[in-house]
Each structure stands twice: as C-alpha cells, then as structure tokens.
Amino acid sequence: MSAHRASPNEPWPGWSTSRAAQAAYGEHLVRIGRLVPFLLYMHVLDRQHLAAAHNARRPELVDFQVRVQSLECRDDLLDTAAVLDVLALCHDHGSYLPRPYQETRDPAPVDAELRTDASDIAERLVRHDRQHGTSTTGGIPPALEDGCTEAERDAVRAYARREWIKAQERPDI
C-alpha cells in the first residue's frame, strides 16, 4: 500500500474537505490538517499545567474540587488519545520517533510524528490513571521511558483505546 500524499482535497486519508474550505485555504489546507494533532496535544498540556498552578496557588481548595478537575483532565486525555489514535490508524503501520526525540533540519515523517503523539498522549493517560486510580479496565501498562520499544508504545495506545471504548459503552448517568 502506498503512503498517502496530502492534498487540499484530502489532507488526511479518508477526510474530505468541503469546497468552501478549499476555496478559503487552497494549498494551505494541508497545513491546517497537520495542526489538528498539535492543537489537541497542546490543549491537554495546557489543561494539566493550569490545574497544577491552580492547586499550588489555592491550597484551601477542598479535595472535591481537585477531584473534579482531575476527572475533567482525564476526559481530555482520553478523548484526545482516541482522536490521535484514530488519525494515526488512518496511516499505514510504521515506526515511532525515538524517545527522547531531537529536532533536526529534516522534518519528521508525518505518520511517525502522529503515531508518536498518539502514544505520548496515551502515556499521559497511563500516568494519570496510575496516580489517581481512575482506570476503568485495569491492566494499566507501564509508563514510557526514554528508549522505550515500539511494543511499549503500542501497549499504551491499546490501553487508551480500551478505556475510551469502555467510556462510550457506559450508560449516561
């Protein structure tokens, strides 16, 4: 199977754009498609930093407030991990970027970068669930370390996928 070649008509495999979007953004639409995983990733990081700063500045907050924020953070991690995983699955199976990753002049392959982002967010979910005891499926894999294997990266993505599916199957309260 050949690699997908991004175009304004199809920036991601299986994702078609509207004529209005093509007219407004033209050839730049491809770059906007690449921003989706970046923006989702940054949203999760920003939320985590905000929660940490809030807790440090307001120690008088009750445990309930911290727990609510923690659960919202987990929902963000879970949804973002699922979205990035789906986007990564739209590409042929391939490798991840090394951990730690060092930027170079040559841009990383988009598919490897996307798989890596998917595993990095899934790993944040793993760390969150270990810290807060919020797993619903159990079997939390180890957190990723520098030099981790592709199997370890696959394991954290599979865990996030299981957790997201379980969340979708539970009845609304």
Would you kindly provide a written description of the structure presented here, covering whatever features stand out?
The chain is mostly helical. The chain has five helices and no strands. The chain has helices at 19-25, 29-57, 63-89, 110-132, 150-169. Helix 2 (29-57) packs antiparallel against helix 3 and helix 4 (110-132) packs across helix 5. The mean pLDDT is 75.
How do the strands and helices of this protein lay out in sequence?
Blueprint: H1 19-25, H2 29-57, H3 63-89, H4 110-132, H5 150-169
Helix pairs in contact: 2-3, 2-4, 3-4, 3-5, 4-5
What is the CA-based Rg, rounded? Answer: 18 Å
Q: Give a count of the beta strands, DSSP E runs of length 2 or more.
A: 0
pLDDT below 50 for ≥5 consecutive residues: which ranges? Answer: none
Helix content: 55-70%
Largest sheet at a glance? Answer: none
End-to-end distance, in Å?
44 Å
How many DSSP H or I helices?
5
Give, in order, the helices and strands. HHHHH
Mean pLDDT metric: 75
What's the overall geometry? globular
The helix/strand class is mainly alpha
Strand percent estimate: under 5%
Features:
61% helix; mainly alpha; 5 helices; globular
Provide a compact summary of the structure.
The chain is mainly alpha-helical.
